[in-house]
Structures are given as structure tokens and as C-alpha cells.
User: What shape does this take?
Amino acid sequence: MKSFTKQYLMIHEMNENSDVGNHNCTFDDGLLSQYTYGRNIDNEKIYFICPSFIDNGVNDIGQKCMNIEHIKKLMDLGIEIGAHSYYHTKLWKLPDLKHRIYHIKKDTDLMLKWFDVNLGLKPEKFCFPYNFDLDGLYKAALVPYGFKEYFGNERIDIDKNYATNLGNNP
Assistant: This one.
């Protein structure tokens, strides 16, 4: 169980002018714009998929998401697919520790089942919803699931306007 040592950008929405330079990239949630504009960049990249968003076709704020065929095409291109929880819940809003741990376990079981059934995949990397590890609680609860790397707020948050002007600046 380790956190990554490379510097990564955290990218959500993209557009035709998005330029991430030569940076390593992570794409959160499974947004359709990430598939459309991110899959052909040559940088190291990981797509963190939230299955409930894929099943619904939109995320929790109404942005269009990929479908299962898009994710399979990414896999065919050799792009790594990581896990980002099933429901993308704001765990800090749950009433207490017991409810948070219960939710993490149920959510992770459901998420891993979805990955297995729909993609034939057991992800090795996990990205915390909202980048929030609950002061180590989330990561500790995930130990039995065997994830090898965890991603959160250590990444550089890039919005689509900033990514447009990022170029090759470090």
C-alpha cells in the first residue's frame, strides 16, 4: 500500500484546446470529454472511473460520462483504468465513523463487482472521491482490497481553462 511518487495532474473536464504539456495525467470520474480529448495524448495517464456515473450517463453535477464501450476502448489502447468508488459519496457528511466504514466497504464491494462484470478488471489504483481520505480512514478500510497505489489531493488540480494554457511548463 503506497502513495505515488510521480507528480500527476488531476483533470476533470477537457475541451479541444486542452494542452497538458508533458505532465502525467489522471482523469477523474469517467467524463466523456476526457475520453474525447484525453485518450490520444502521449503522456502517462490513468482514468479513474466511478461506475455509478457510467451507469447513469452523467456525473453528480450533470456532466456527460463515458459508457462501458469507451472504457473498453481505452483499455484496448493500453491505458490504465483505476477505481474511484461506486457512488462518489461525500463521506464526511455521514453521521459517524461506523456509517463511514460501512459505506466504504459496501461501496468498494459494489465497485469491484462492477469492474469485474463489465470490464473483467480488478483495478490496482484507487482515487479517493473528492480527494478526501478522511485522515487515513478510507485508505485503512481499503487495505483488504489490495490496491497498490492511492491518489488524492497530492495531485495538481487543473481545470479546463488552466489546462488550455498549461503547455509544457513544469
Q: What stands out?
A: The longest helix spans residues 97-119. The CA atoms of residues 39 and 75 lie 10 Å apart.
